[in-house]
Design a protein that fits this description.
Blueprint: E1 3-4, H1 5-9, E2 15-17, E3 24-25, E4 27-29, E5 39-42, H2 55-60, E6 65-68, E7 81-84, H3 88-99, E8 108-113, H4 118-131, E9 136-140, E10 143-146, E11 149-150, H5 163-175, E12 180-184, H6 187-191, E13 200-205, H7 213-216, H8 219-227, E14 233-239, H9 243-249, E15 256-259, H10 281-296, H11 301-304, E16 319-323, E17 326-331, H12 336-349, E18 354-358, H13 369-379, E19 382-385, H14 395-403, E20 413-415, H15 419-429, E21 435-439, E22 446-449, E23 452-455, H16 458-474
Parallel strand pairs: 4-5, 5-6, 6-7, 8-12, 8-13, 9-12, 13-14, 14-15, 17-21, 18-19, 18-21, 19-20
Antiparallel strand pairs: 1-3, 2-7, 9-10, 10-11, 16-17, 22-23
Length: 480
């Protein structure tokens, strides 16, 4: 749509100087590399860089205006429009929605937040909507899907897309006749205003775990980030089985509907005829959360519940590979709650040994490492601790933090820093009837190290290891 700069800033608290306000705005970005003629460049000061350093580059590439939230930026040419706003992030959200034509206002939008389960619940909702004849888009950690098919999209791989990408995507969805949007609302996405001007019909709060505390500056800030969703939706759906969620919902300014196994929950489905390939009590709760969303949309229990038999877990969520009687599960579990839920599920169904391979991400919540180590030992026959996404942290130091949870020496614990070799070793140690769990990275196709992103897939490596083990066993070679 054609939008003049004067229209975009009308009634917005700001101070404007320089340049021509009767300029057609063609886009907005905080990434100077994306600036084109007619774009607004938002020179925000971030945690790792200062956008003011890229103002010159943005102007050279055709920026129509510069947005800042301070008065100490110097060196901007007099003929360039400068807009000073109270908060760059909030303005970016507002302007992105306006430039896209506010598509969220015409779509049914469902946002799911929680420490664990966001990806599974969003995909479950998308699958149920498809079964009911609706065209839905699912946006989140594993990518963007329309009608269950992953689409190509030129944007960052983030759980919750920044506003400048989100609203243009919603506009594309609307043009492709999508009627429902189901998206993951991460704590960081909520706290950094990415969803501020996205009209949301239903918000779902699944659980509160012990992840991302350090990124937010503590548990209180993390919880408050999640609570922001209550002020952005028309109806909230909350897990009645999670006491912290129930407490958070007490101050919600919108109607709250509770789901769960708790007798006081508004929505309970005692027994779900789910796909038998989807194990775990926690996945039944995930399905119940999805059902709750459909009921709020106006569907009946009789319409929704029978369709749960077709539900499938998204990529990297208890993704199962089997060969010669050995089962391998790849799962994204990277928090203590998620890891325990998966381990308990597999331990209850495993007739042989349960071998667990996992690590913890670098530069993230060090406090959870020992706890995850303790849980792995509690449920597993043997554990191989390996590297996850160490980023710029020493992988050896991460492993030492995890090993503290083992409470001393243990012959069933081994550290193998090379993740590929750790997976291979676990599979080669397994016998028919055993289960191997590879946890932490799930769907991810890269590993984030100090050297940058390198190609790596747990699913591919597990498949290769199973094939190689079969090859060696056939020839009578000791694969260990």
């Amino acid at each position: 749509m054609v939008l003049y700069l004067t229209e975009l800033i009308k009634n917005w608290p700001c101070t404007v100087s320089g340049g021509e306000l009767r300029t057609v705005v063609t886009g907005i970005t905080e990434n100077s590399s994306r600036v084109k003629s007619g774009y607004i460049f938002v020179a925000r000061r971030g945690g790792h860089y200062d956008g003011a350093l890229y103002i010159k580059k943005a102007i050279e590439q055709g920026a129509a205006a510069i947005v800042i939230d301070r008065t100490d930026v110097i060196g901007i040419p007099a003929g360039v429009v400068v807009i000073i706003v109270p908060d760059c992030r909030v303005f970016l959200s507002h302007a992105s929605a306006r430039l896209a034509g506010n598509p969220a206002e015409r779509l049914k939008v469902i946002a799911v937040t929680g420490t664990n389960g966001k990806t599974t619940v969003t995909h479950f909702i998308g699958q149920l909507l498809k079964e009911l004849g609706k065209k839905a888009a699912v946006i989140g950690t594993t990518g963007i899907f329309i009608d269950g098919v992953k689409i190509d999209y030129d944007g960052p791989q983030m759980t919750t897309l920044p506003a400048e990408y989100l609203h243009s995507l919603l506009q594309r969805c609307e043009n492709e006749k999508v009627t429902h949007i189901v998206l993951e609302a991460s704590s960081l996405g909520l706290s950094t205003n990415r969803l501020d001007h996205c009209a949301i019909d239903i918000g779902i709060l699944l659980n509160i775990g012990t992840d991302h505390y350090e990124e937010h500056g503590g548990k209180t800030c993390y919880v408050n980030a999640k609570k922001r969703l209550f002020g952005m939706v028309k109806t909230a759906i909350v897990n009645k089985d999670d006491g912290e969620c129930v407490e958070m919902a007490k101050s919600a300014p919108v109607p709250v509907v509770y789901f769960g196994t708790d007798p006081a929950a508004d929505i309970q489905v005692p027994y779900l005829q789910m796909n038998p390939m989807i194990p775990g009590h926690y996945n039944r709760l995930n399905a119940l959360a999805a059902i709750s969303a459909l009921l709020i949309l106006g569907y009946t229990v009789d319409e929704v519940v029978p369709r749960c038999g077709v539900l499938q877990l998204p990529e990297g969520r208890l993704q199962r590979l089997e060969r010669d009687g050995i089962q391998v599960y790849v799962d994204y579990a990277h928090t203590p709650d998620a890891l325990e839920a998966v381990l308990r599920t597999l331990a209850n169904s495993c007739y042989g040994k349960l071998i667990t391979v996992f690590g913890c991400g670098g530069q993230r919540d060090k406090g959870k490492r020992a706890e995850m180590g303790e849980l792995a030992v509690l449920y597993s026959s043997s554990v191989i601790v390996t590297s996850d996404n160490p980023r710029n942290e020493d992988p050896d130091a991460i492993v030492r933090d995890i090993m503290e949870g083992f409470g001393g020496d243990c012959s069933a614990i081994e550290a193998v820093l090379d993740r590929k070799y750790a997976i291979r070793k676990a599979v080669f140690c397994a016998a028919p009837g055993d289960v191997v769990l590879i946890a932490g990275k799930g769907h991810e196709k890269t590993q984030h190290t100090a050297d940058g992103l390198i190609p790596f897939s747990d699913i591919e490596e597990a498949g290769k290891a199973l094939s190689e083990k079969t090859f060696l066993d056939i020839r009578g070679i000791n694969s260990e």
